[in-house]
Design goal:
This protein is mainly α. The protein is 82% helix and 0% strand. The chain is elongated.
């Protein structure tokens, strides 16, 4: 799903709802103005909202929209603050898009450099009569390894292996702030809608973006439902949430400003995720630079060793 299409859809929906258009017309217009897959969904969204009287959140969920967006749309429908929560969905997608661009910008040059390190040392051998296909051997091997790792990542994601790895050191230092930010944002919307804490946690469990944390949030919801935890902060503390976030939520509950605190925590954790991911990108860039230098050194030493060997053979 294109981030640009999602941004266009929710931004248009936000403006249309704010202007007072009926939800069915607003959603159809927003879908028609966005790219794929929303443009394909426009007719079904209009039909199910107008004729069947279904909720927009349930329609989007059936069509394959992300649980995070569906959770905020559901909260917006229940609280009458759909326009505001659509703006938060837009902000979420813009944050992810800017993060992706940051990673691409920082990794583009090192990736080109490692390709050069694989290709340039082979050029003299091609001029000496080796096949020109030899130029593609290094990059093909590199991308073959990357493709195999991507396939293993996808298969591991389906089996829950990736989710478990993401909650283990050191990956959890990067992933946990993002899942916490997603959960806090959905809890903010659900609280604004007047949902009970256990219902809000179940909604956040689907939207947080990690199976393991989702299951922990469901455990917290169960504790609240059974009366084993007296407050939202206490229930979250039992499942191992970041202590600073738990303390802020505890203070927010005590002061009667939980919604504001949840929004603050979501924004802070999202910024913390981006900052930590930036450092991961810097480390990855350094490792790629080192690998490129090592590959280039090995290739050049191998070339000149062979060249000197040929000189020794022809010398009397």
């Amino acid at each position: 799903m294109s981030r640009a299409s999602a941004i266009t859809f929710y931004h248009h929906l936000q403006l249309s709802v704010r202007s007072g258009l009926p939800l069915a017309s607003a959603a159809e217009s927003a879908a028609a103005s966005a790219g794929a897959p929303y443009k394909r969904w426009a007719g079904e969204i209009s039909n199910r909202l107008s004729n069947a009287g279904e909720a927009l959140s349930s329609v989007l969920r059936d069509l394959g929209e992300s649980p995070f967006a569906c959770g905020l749309v559901l909260a917006g429908e229940r609280s009458g603050r759909l326009s505001e929560l659509c703006a938060h969905v837009v902000a979420y997608h813009e944050h992810i898009r800017s993060t992706q661009r940051m990673l691409i910008t920082r990794l583009a040059y090192p990736v080109l450099l490692i390709h050069a390190a694989l290709v340039f040392p082979v050029i003299p051998r091609v001029f000496h009569g080796d096949s020109a296909w030899l130029l593609l051997a290094g990059p093909a091997t590199l991308w073959g390894i990357v493709g195999a790792l991507a396939l293993l990542w996808r298969l591991g994601g389906r089996g829950g292996v990736v989710a478990r790895l993401a909650t283990s050191p050191p990956a959890n230092q990067v992933v946990t702030p993002l899942t916490t930010a997603n959960a806090c944002m959905v809890l903010y919307g659900a609280t604004a809608a007047g949902m009970l804490y256990d219902e809000s946690l179940l909604l956040a469990a689907e939207a947080c973006g990690n199976r393991v944390w989702g299951e922990r949030l469901r455990q917290a919801a169960g504790e609240l439902r059974r009366g084993e935890a007296e407050s939202l902060a206490l229930a979250l503390n039992h499942i191992g949430w970041d202590r600073r976030v738990v303390d802020l939520l505890d203070n927010g509950e005590t002061a009667g400003r939980l919604e504001e605190t949840l929004l603050h925590c979501a924004e802070h954790e999202r910024e913390r995720f981006q900052w930590r991911l930036g450092w991961v990108a810097r480390i990855a860039t350094g490792l790629i630079f080192a690998a490129a230098m090592l590959i280039a050194a090995i290739q050049i030493i191998g070339f000149w060793t062979g060249y000197l060997g040929q000189i020794e053979e022809v010398m009397p």
